[in-house]
Design a protein that fits this description.
Helices cover about 20% and strands about 25% of the residues. It is α/β, with parallel strands linked by helices. The structure holds copper (II) ion (CU).
Length: about 190
């Protein structure tokens, strides 16, 4: 009786010692995070390149593709809320003296639009009565003509014309006759 207890204790001790002595193979190896951080940096660079004015210290690129820095609020438009038509190769802005659907009279639709560089934007009269003779298209801000660096050129005849926006920037326009009642807008290019 007594000897069995001693033997049992000795076995348990031996097993425990064996378990302890075998527990020595956990030397850690450094995990590689180089590829993950490289990907983040590349995305950030793309965002900086797109917006063009925030410098090279921007970390990460989560806001890069939809960034609006470098674009300015003008003619009642805000780059953050402009109709996003980026990715379309052609975009049409219609204009009219009369209400068109939910678009009120004497306005452009969409008046404030964001497009990708290289996009061709067409200004199109919504009805036969809507022409550039009635609504002279004019580049500029706050009803003052300004052709500086603006692909939009003044139009006083015809009803439809297109401009290609090669470079990023803010390109405001208005109707020379109805600007004072809000017939104005801006093309944002990014
Ligand atoms: Cu007009």
């Amino acid at each position: 009786m007594h000897s069995k207890i001693v033997i049992g204790f000795a076995l348990a001790f031996a097993l425990g010692a064996a378990a302890c002595s075998s527990d020595n193979g956990s030397s850690s190896s450094s995990s590689g995070t180089t590829s993950a951080s490289t990907t983040t940096g590349t995305t950030g660079t793309t965002g900086t390149t797109t917006t063009g004015s925030t410098g090279t210290t921007t970390t990460g690129g989560s806001g890069g593709s939809s960034g609006t820095s470098g674009l300015t609020a003008v003619n009642g438009c805000d780059p953050a809320t402009a109709t996003d038509m980026t990715g379309h190769s052609t975009v049409t802005i219609s204009y009219s003296s009369s209400a068109q659907g939910s678009t009120p009279a004497f306005s452009y639709s969409p008046a404030c639009v964001k497009v990708s560089a290289g996009t061709s934007v067409t200004f199109q009269g919504a009805t036969a009565a809507d022409t550039f003779a009635v609504h002279p298209l004019t580049p500029g801000t706050n009803c003052v003509a300004d052709t500086t660096n603006n692909p939009i050129t003044a139009q006083s005849s015809g009803a439809s014309t297109s401009f290609t926006f090669a470079n990023a920037g803010t390109f405001p326009y208005f109707c020379a006759v109805h600007c004072s009642v809000g017939m104005k807008g801006a093309v944002y290019v990014q």
